[in-house]
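ok trying this again, last paste got cut off
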Amino acid sequence: MLIFELMNFEKIKKLNELINASENIVIIPHTSPDGDAIGSCLALYNVLKIINKSSHVVSPNKAPDFLNWTPGFDKITYYDTEKERCKKLISNSDLIFTLDFNDLSRIGELKEVLNQSNSKTVMIDHHQNPKDYADLIFSNSEIGSTCELLYEIFVLIGFESKLNKDISSCLYLGMMTDTGSFQYSSVSSRTHEIISSLFNKKIDHNFIYNKVYNDSSASRLKVLGSALNSLTHIKELNTVYMSLKRDELEKLNYKKGDSEGIVNYGLTLKGVIFCAIFIEDVNVSNNVKISFRSLGNFPCNLYAENHFLGGGHINASGGRFEGNAENAIEKFLKSLPKYKDKLI
């Protein structure tokens, strides 16, 4: 489907008017921002800087250190450590962009701050079932990343000529990470056309890939080893799962981002089409974060929604469980037989 069929002229015109009329803009990613959230926010931040618009990225909490090379990363303000400054930036804003999420529950305590703001709000996101909280909504779940959708918006709004190497690097980061390095079914010929245009801006795609996937700390490698050691293969259902317990993570000096991407290793086992990882929260008791990945048509987003208060995309989703990993896994194992016809 062409992007021109997804967004009508009136929406683009309205977005242009909002940007032109605004003097103080705030850009917000979701809690625990990933490559697509950081990439889209900093791509927009850097575009706005070029057109001489004052903007600030306000994140609910810190992004993983392996994203710290992203152009503009050092300019991000974090709500969990600078609450008053973030509140002031939002209260003084006249336009707020929310990127890579479509439900205000995804920004934690920042939700209340946003609800008190009189600013116009623009949502740009690619997840399913968007909530109707924004004045202007750009949402399409068929697109593989918010960065890809943002690129299309930049083109339609007339900003394509402003996409320099830094901005293109931010966009490539989000497109790469949210498509599993371009392996998910959401990747289209248009995705590769956009990548080609980003390459023309002289991005260093090897550098970006290595920074995200091959620049690990000792703790990240140890966490990976612990997760792989826990791997359990349910052969009759073509499923694997892994777990990381809170006490293990503390012993391994776990740092934010150390478990990023580990769930994908489950799909490398021959014949596996569904995998999950259960990670006990090191900061909050009785809270388990769960990531799901699948191949083909198995809808792990619907699975997450039905069983673990989650959602996401057909091949990549997340959920949570109140309790410990052992109990979460028990629930997982009880639910799997219901999906036997989709797993074999």
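PB: full thing came through this time. Residues 218-343 form a domain with the Diaminopimelate Epimerase; Chain A, domain 1 fold (CATH 3.10.310.30).
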